[in-house]
## 1
Amino acid sequence: MFRSVRPKAQQTKGAKDPVLKSIATIKHYEQNDFEMLSVNGRLPTFKKFLYDRSGEKCTSAKLATAGFCKHGKKDEPDAICLFCGKVMSFDPDDDPWEEHQSHCPQCPFVQIGKLDETTWTVDDTIHLLSALVTRSKKEATLQLTRELSSMIETMTQKLSL
Ligand SMILES: [Zn+2]
């Protein structure tokens, strides 16, 4: 699930109603998009990453620098690019930036091609933040639409009984 990669996702767990939960998720994304723009926001999502322990080439620092956040279960080497939404499963000797470039040539982060954030122009920053916000809101809105459709279906079934 997309939101599981966000470090503060527990904020949305309190809501039991699926629609309220989806709305909370949208608000959560709004609060965290700016944070995820930076490698310092993405790196903490890889807490106790599988390949960091064994001293492999594909480290959490390299993954975060290449635009990725942790995705999926703790013991799996999966990561997601929040700019293009690509989920990838990495091998210990992978170079995350090379993999990102070869699998996602259309990704806005890949197209800008500047791993060092201090070299970003204002236009680069706006372009990347815009990609993040658009992607995360689209994801959350789709989830909300699914929840509402499910509710309507359930209500329709109850009314027809
Ligand atoms: Zn990407």
## 2
Amino acid sequence: MTTALAILLAGLACAGLIAVYTVLLDSPPLPSGGAARAGLVALIPPDLPDGQVYELGCGWGDLALDLAKAMPERRVVAVEASPLPWLVAKLRALGRKNLSVRWGRIEALDLSDAALVAAYLGPKPMTRLSDKLRTELPPQSVFLSNGFALADLTPERMVNLPTPVTTTLYRYRMREAA
Ligand SMILES: C[S@@+](CC[C@H](N)C(=O)[O-])C[C@H]1O[C@@H](n2cnc3c(N)ncnc32)[C@H](O)[C@@H]1O
């Protein structure tokens, strides 16, 4: 087998693996753009309670790295189930002491010690996760979402980004579960 053929097959295997996980998770590993990441960081309120920061579905690690840089005093935990993006995010986090990148499903995380949770997911994963977020996140903790609203909760703040396709950023302040 020639080197070129081996590279082509490896590339196809990687693309296939990404495609399979995109279908399984209803979400491609599409990174938040620079403006969205900066907008989410700007939405971090000064009065966060004690606790950890979580990035749900961190993809290649772009947003998780920005969160870890913005909050060097906090431990940031990022989780990703798609193997290749997880590996890249894990390697990118090596120099960042306050960021750990875990391979696994968001559903398996215990978010009860969260101060802030950030995500850029999609309509189906957001619907699946909304009960978990509402019941598990402590009162006064903050949920930031790029592009997708949480059903039945009113955001504390919304920012529309004038990117080519209008994107809305949401900030929710969690209350006692009813
Ligand atoms: C649109 S990308 C966002 C990547 C990154 N958060 C960012 O903003 O740059 C969503 C990521 O969430 C991951 N994901 C979706 N559902 C998941 C789940 N239930 N558990 C773990 N990862 C999940 C996908 O594999 C994908 O990489």
## 3
Amino acid sequence: MISRFTRTFIFSCVCLLLIGTVFFLNPPIHLQWDADNNEWFNTDGVPHVPVDVDRHIASGHVIMGKLGNETAKAALGRATWKLLHTMTLRFPEHPTEDEREALRSYIHLTSRLYPCGECAEEFQTLLKAHPPQTSSRKTASQWLCYVHNLVNKRLRKDQFDCTKLDDTYDCGCGDDPSEKKGEHLIKGG
Ligand SMILES: Cc1cc2nc3c(=O)[nH]c(=O)nc-3n(C[C@H](O)[C@H](O)[C@H](O)COP(=O)(O)OP(=O)(O)OC[C@H]3O[C@@H](n4cnc5c(N)ncnc54)[C@H](O)[C@@H]3O)c2cc1C
């Protein structure tokens, strides 16, 4: 007959062995910041790539609550549409996969973090039916115009003529020909 003490001892050993095995198979990742390359590295020197973080974060729930103030809601809407339309109209003509993913994620994150919660809920539903189109500047800007018109329709506002996008959103902020794309930003100038 095994005594109660022995049984407890064996049970504890088995538990410790199991925990040790799990820890051994999935050691905690220690990250180090490489200031020269602006990159996180694992302690084994491999660049740290946050797998699936974008997909996970971008598809989450709406974060903000209801925005009761109609004046604030309208002002926020106008400012946000201005930002989004200007963004898609300055998006690259031939974006890389990384640039496309950045825009997709931005739109999806906007649908989570938009400060008017009830608008964000509606926007998420809209995005499920009409996912962001990011293959080119033209595609992205026309997609956004179409989506904005769907919101207009729901709110019983006039439809916008999407052939007039370029005239309406000519911000006078074309690329500076003397600068290579993004170079001045990297230099911090
Ligand atoms: C993602 C999102 C979701 C929203 N959801 C809601 C909601 O659920 N309920 C709510 O009350 N408000 C919502 N709003 C706010 C709403 O869309 C308006 O911004 C707000 O009511 C102010 O309307 P507005 O008449 O000034 O014109 P806005 O719709 O804000 O448009 C601003 C200007 O953009 C131009 N424009 C209009 N349509 C288009 C288009 N299709 N493409 C390009 N340019 C265009 C016009 O020049 C217009 O004057 C939302 C805003 C956003 C950004």
